[in-house]
Specification:
By secondary structure, this protein is mainly alpha-helical. It has 15 helices and 8 strands. A two-stranded antiparallel ribbon has the order 1-4. A two-stranded antiparallel ribbon has the order 2-3. Strands 5-6 form a two-stranded antiparallel sheet. The protein starts with a helix and ends with a helix. About 1% of the residues have low confidence.
Amino acid sequence: MDYSSVDKFIDRIVEESTPAAPLWNTERAKNGKSAAPDFGDGCLMSALYAYYKSTGDKKYLKFIDDFMDGCVADDGAMQGYSPEDYNLEYFNAGRILFDLYRETCKDKYIKAIDVLGKQLVGQPRTAIGDFWYKKVYPNQVLLEGLYAAQVFYARYETEYNRGKNYADIVKQFKNAYENMYDKDKKLYFHGLDYSRTALWSDAQTGLSKSFYLRAIAYFAAGLADAIGYMDRSRPDLKAEMITVFRRTIVGLEQYIDPDKHMFWQVVDAAGKDGNYLETSGSALIAYAMLRGARFGYVDKRFAEVGKSIFDGVCAEYLTETDGKLNLGGICLWAGLGPEDRANRNGTFEYYVSQPTAVNDAKGVAPLIAAYTEVKRLIK
């Protein structure tokens, strides 16, 4: 496959974006929102940094620094950040700060890391020690919350706390495997409400009702990244994480569409009316497989499996119109949502009825991240 189109697409994302009007967030431009970094921005900045490291072209580093410099005040406070929210999404926007501080030595970035480190200490938890996704979602654990928080947490522990809390990170991933994993289908439920009070949750189990691709993909990618950020001081704990990761990846393989080499939005309902092959989750899983194979977390054959998924995404959804490349098939949003939508939350219909987006960061970032791994593979 000729991957030059992917490079052209990435350049388009950078060249046609500003912090106030990023190409990857049309909702922000349309609504005139501030440049407060959100979950998608965090994904995009981290993926672009990996791409910068693979190319050596400092224009990408400059783009990332310019974007985040405008989001972080001199005292380390990020635009839109409210400590009292105890929202795990802030950590995802903060992941790039470690790299930016190392590259630029700007004090504001390390101050922002410290701000988020204090949030780790105070983040509300379930009775068994899992972070709440947000303070306004009491006792609720969502898979994307593990991706957002635990990757930051692992790197923070390694670089600033001598790994003293590695066991806490491992426990939270293992809790998800033990309590949110369907061992027959080998898939994770999107959410678990330990209090059984959220209207979307099953009254008996507290679990949501469907297997949503991107949430599962975030979990897999979060494991791959968190394992990589843990140092060698606790090989026993890393081994536990690798076991969960391996089971997650092996379980997912059976759901790859044999013709298109992608995953369906509702993973176990291939071909069902309304369901569709989805970009962001497929690319995230491709990234997790490629990275996991490179570091030996899973069998080396998963490098080729991951590459075939990446190729499938590009073939299906990376298209050119009027001379411009666009990435389609991206689920714009499909979280559990406000409780006034409880008649739909967690159901098959809820997950497939959301509109697909073009060039949204939640799909663009996984594509770039997976591409950096593909480039390593084909060198």
